[in-house]
Specification:
225 residues, 9 strands, single chain
Length: 225
């Protein structure tokens, strides 16, 4: 029987180098996809956390604001004030950083829009002692209604000076025709409220926008007739 001759051929160096190069490209692409996915997931998680804090805080704040003027005799615009961050009064319809209101002739409560969130001064029904509707002192007890970690937003790249995620403004406006609490329809026998408070908050939903966008929470000050 004749001898069978087999032709044997090895792998060349060029083929090995090409295989290694393709493997490196595939591995780098997979690593890039992993890093991108992780970054997007982290940003989305942080943004969702901010949004949940804002929404829950707005619900709690709405319940507080509905009580403005309660217990006062014929409450008027002289019983509340909108102040800027320096404590100077702003006119109705203009955005401010403080809303201060009387709960009695000698005591007040206040909302503050701070860089780290929204705070309530005088967290009990007693409030804090005040002689005027001035900016509350830093020594007065306060509790957070909305907490925003701006350093985390900035470091992650989610928040910036354009979208202003987490920034909150406070407005009080007079209402033409009056307003009533949500879900309640006023009639001729039920006087409507004269003013409403609007909280404007920038959320994560606006993270890709080049300019700030806001959601609004409007509360009728029904006790102010």
């Amino acid at each position: 029987m004749g001898n069978l001759k087999f032709s044997q051929r090895g792998i060349s160096l060029i083929e090995i180098l090409i295989a290694l190069a393709l493997s490196i490209i595939i591995i780098l692409a997979m690593l890039r996809a992993f890093v991108t996915t992780g970054k997007v997931t982290t940003e989305a998680s942080l943004g969702a956390k901010v949004d949940s804090h804002i929404m829950l805080g707005l619900i709690a704040t709405d319940r507080i604001l509905q009580g403005l003027g309660y217990g006062l005799t014929n409450p008027t615009a002289a019983d509340f004030a909108i102040l800027d961050e320096n404590g100077d009064a702003v006119t109705l319809g203009q955005a401010g950083k403080f809303l201060v209101w009387k709960i009695s002739t000698t005591h007040c409560q206040a909302l503050q829009s701070h860089t780290s969130g929204l705070y309530l001064y005088g967290k009990t029904d007693v409030g804090y002692s005040c002689s005027s509707l001035a900016k509350p002192a830093d020594t007065i007890a306060k509790e957070p209604l909305i907490q925003i970690d701006h350093s985390a937003l900035s470091n992650s790249g989610v928040g910036n000076t354009n979208n202003k995620i987490g920034e909150i403004d406070i407005k009080v406006q007079s209402v033409t025709g009056g307003c009533s609490p949500f879900g309640i329809t006023g009639d001729s026998s039920t006087p409507l409220g004269k003013y409403h408070v609007t909280l404007l908050a920038n959320t994560y939903a606006a993270s890709t926008d080049s300019t700030a966008r806001t959601i609004q929470n409007v509360t009728c000050l029904f006790n102010f007739k």
